[in-house]
Amino acid sequence: MSKTKLLQGNEACAEGALYAGCNFFGGYPITPSTEVAEYLSRELPKVGGAFIQMEDEIAAMGSVIGASLAGAKALTATSGPGFSLKQENLGYAMITEIPCVVIDVMRGGPSTGVPTGPSQSDIMQCKWGTHGDHPVICLTPGYVQEIFDETVRAFNLSEKYRTPVIVAYDEIIGHMRERVEIPDQGVIPVVNRTKPPQGLAKYLPYDDTKGDVPPMANFFEGYRYHVTGLNHAPDGFPINAHPRIHTDEERLIRKVDGNRADICKNELYKTEDAEIGIFAYGASARAAKDAIDAARAEGIKVGLFRPLTMWPFPEEAVCAFAKQVKTIIVPELSLGQIILEVERVSKAQCGIEGIFRVDGDPITPAQILAKIKEVK
Amino acid sequence: MAFDYSPYLRGGKLPHIWCPGCTYGIVFKSLLRSLDGLKQNKDDLALVSGIGCASRLPGYVDANTLHTAHGRALTFATGIKMARPEKRVIAMSGDGDATAIGGNHFIHACRRNIDITVLVFNNYIYGMTGGQHSPTTPVGHKASTMTYGNVDPNFDIAKLAIGAGASFVARGTAYHVPALDKILTEAIEHKGLSVVEVINACPTTHGRRNKFKNATDQLLWMKDSFLPKAAFEKLPADKTEGKLPLGVLYKDGNATEYCETYFAMTAGVRAQNEGRA
After folding, report:
1. What rounded mean pLDDT belongs to chain B?
2. Which residues of B touch A61 (CB under 8 A)?
């Protein structure tokens, strides 16, 4: 029997992690994500998992990567300044292709910013936070139920593609309580990393000759291999100034961007006949839905494009949306970040209008409705 | 018969990257002899390092080896150990890696007393980047970022580890090799966080800037400057200047180990829940 619970977004995240088989959490306290850690510190011992509160955010991220390499399904959760601190090790997980999930509950910034206020201003950091070219999967749930669902999906994608997955949601949904259905085990498929066959004469951890995602052996299971954050050859050992560096970095990006059909997920709300479009996610998308309903009551044809996967960016779908509507409105809790990506992929087929807010309050349906009327 | 290192080496990965005169190879061999003496199963061994010359060591060893980010070896090692507490985890760092950029992780790993062995290769300098001063560069010594002589006060790595709560702390040198074999063996066997500060020489970026004409001069300096703990303790106070003790400096065999404590707690939680059910 599935369970129905009244959960806070951060608690739903922890439940999603447990559903997906998470058995390691390494974290550090930070508002507004701390409830994920608190919940798992209580629940992981019950299922034989491990929780550790590390000395800082950097250490938390390192512990998660180490645990995953040793076979665990590992999670960390953070916000704002903590997400900044995790960036170096996040890049390490990307280049070494070690699965893990990072929750970023977005609060105001830069720096300490507004710890208790909502924000959507980490969305470009999710893509570009660590140095170098790198693949990014980032999921952006907008409801408490979706935080559960998308956390499960984050683990699955992470295991399938051997890469860290970020789940980014704003403080509003993180702290909101809503009804959550937790299905029985097995209802939502749980994906585990593909391991190499037993008994290979030589295991090459980064052998890409059979596909862009090489099978991953865990430490201590018999294949003794080397892992380094230096660019490396198929055997895991460093290479310098070698053509493979270029092709391997292309592969890392291709394994994510080339699988958009599998990774991308959007909700289209009343877009069939829309003449005005809204591109929004998280709490801003919820306000947009109210504004759309109000506008439609007045006969204005508006529809919403809501990405549940922000990275890789749904380029083709947004481009098609831009072709359909005369203007896309982009409400976001930042001074204009994701609007740049919408603008880029829209290729000047429609007008682009932003609604930006960073004073610690959400964008209201009234604000969006006013903008709809302005552009109609 | 000469000791056969080959079972512990990865084929085709030598020669190592270390400069002529560097003492890291001496410590490397000592570590392999210690592992052999303990009959360490290679499948059950993880070697974890940060960034720097010492951190290249794991790559040469036929084990589960992880070369992480600068200063962060112990964070990854902690995750590995928590995920597979029954496995052997050895971390290695340089003086800068362990006590500057990784200083926070170092003291907290000591505090937790998690069952990891930490080798700190103290060569008094940032070697890989060309000789910048580290937290252990002696005051007055020249470094590429201390042209006029180092003014930065030092860490005593062993004292730092003891103060932070490690249950086994020892000091060895690349000169006193049979003693180092014994120290490393005892450190690896110890249940809890064991730190071994291993005194090393970097002739290329430290020695030649600081009046050590030859690489061997630095080994002779080790010979003169470090003496067994018992002998050191017998020295009159006015003779200890410039000298440091060698060997096991601190050992608490009864200190509670982190994973044991944590998983005993979680087993208790599950037993209690089953009792209720």
Report:
1. 97
2. 75
